[in-house]
Amino acid sequence: MNVYDSERMAETMAVAGYSVGCSEKDADLIVLNTCHIREKATEKIYSELGRLKPLKLSNPSLRVAVAGCVAQAEGEEIIARQPLVDIVVGPQSYHQLPELVSKAEQGRKSVATDFLADEKFERLPKAALPRKSPTAFLTVQEGCDKFCTFCVVPYTRGAEYSRPAARIVAEAAQLADRGVREITLLGQNVNAYHGEGVDGRQWGLAALIRAIADIGGIERIRYTTSHPSDMSGDLIEAHASCAKLMPYLHLPVQSGSDKILKAMNRKHTSGQYLRLIESIRRARPDILISGDFIVGFPGETESDFEDTLRLVDEIGYGQSYSFRYSPRPGTPAAERVQIPPDVASERLRKLQLLLKKHQRAAQDSMVGRVATVLFERRGRQEGQLAGKSEYLQAVHVDCDEKKLGEIAEVRIIRSEPNSLAGELVN
Ligand code: SAH
Ligand code: SF4
Q1: Which residue among 53, 173, 312, 352 is buried most deeply as judged by most CB within 10 Å?
Q2: For range 176-196, the mean pLDDT
């Protein structure tokens, strides 16, 4: 979502007469768009800001803004800790960036952290900058009301908000006109989408997907990130009947232990999750399942951790993201007795080894098969294009550059550590 937000900020500033620069040295304004989900991401911001200090000293007219969830969470604390910062702007206020920048040009610092989600989307300009990629993100929903005990999202992104479908469909049509072939619908809890439909009724995510599938030029639709409890029958059915909805689903589970799931306030058991995956696979047998995992959550015993390993083996994730639990300020789990860091690190190592094995197996099973690949950019080597299969696997192919932005059938010939090699069919 930060990629989408950064694009919107660049477009807002383009309307105000700025253009995207190519080096920090020549910039009049540097915006750091930040993530607060884990401590590591947050701490990175301060080292980045320190790095900008000599630049600011040599160019006093340079303005520095901190945007995103760290801005939301830490507010003026950021300016107190690093006075070179001129603007702190939260994820629901960044449409105000031009005003904040012109204030900063007059030497006035500002902190904007109001929750103005509906106003933000109303005011954001679209299509102000050329598009380089045939894929695009599109935010349909923001915020979260679930309050998992480890997570800062409900505090930084605010309450759940769904954009009206008509606006989303219009934005998708505009993207199609600008050469976009694949859209990934975004939300912190995207499958909880419940916006006003084009027909005036309330729509769920499945109805929205079907409406976007009707747009000429849009060939592929994805969505992320979903919560297991919001995986409706209608959405599962869309995986069976909507050909443009890609066979890939990121459905985080976090842990395989019912005790830990309860302590995380995830609102489902491991058994319910397994049955859910079964019904999704009945609807779309070839679907590739991806997941998120947290190890070392407070109270996690060796046996809880083994439940997670067992669940991973049962599901067979084709892709995954796994993290050591990071206590976040203001969240309930941060107050609990913590697992020793070396124990958590060892569990993460073991889990990642297993996840890697499953990811590699899913990738290797593609060898000899024909995948459909959307070519997104030039490959690392001369005469090569790189793109994604329908299962979101990276694929590189020797072929003519003219195919950039197109979807082609590709026979997979080799599975490499993090990508597939293929050749054009015909
Ligand atoms: N809405 C999604 C997840 C959004 S956050 C869901 O409910 O599943 C993205 C991922 O970051 C989470 O799935 C989780 O695995 C990880 N994460 C969030 N908070 C974390 C924390 N405090 N420590 C470690 N990982 C965390
Ligand atoms: Fe965070 Fe996802 Fe839980 Fe919401 S549902 S609190 S975004 S982990």
Answers
A1: 312
A2: 97
| Tens-digit pLDDT profile for residues 40-53 | 888 899 999 999 99
User: Does the pLDDT of residue 239 top 70, yes or no?
Assistant: yes
Please give the structure tokens belonging to residue 63: 């303005």
The mean pLDDT of the chain is 95
57-62 long-range Cβ contacts below 8 angstroms, 24+ apart? 61/28, 62/27, 62/28, 62/29, 62/30
Distance of CA 316 to the CA centre of its chain: 22
123's tokens:
């005011």
Whether residue 187 has its Cβ less than 6 Å from ligand 2:
no
Residue in 354, 370, 352 with CA at minimum distance from that of residue 420: 370
Q: Evaluate if residue 316 carries a pLDDT over 90.
A: yes
**CB distance 267 to ligand 2 below 6 Å:** no
Look up the pTM and report it: 0.94
Q: Radius of gyration (Cα) for the chain, nearest Å? A: 22
Report how far apart, in Å, the C-alpha atoms of 335 and of each of 143, 149, 154, 331, 332 are.
Answer: 23, 10, 17, 8, 6
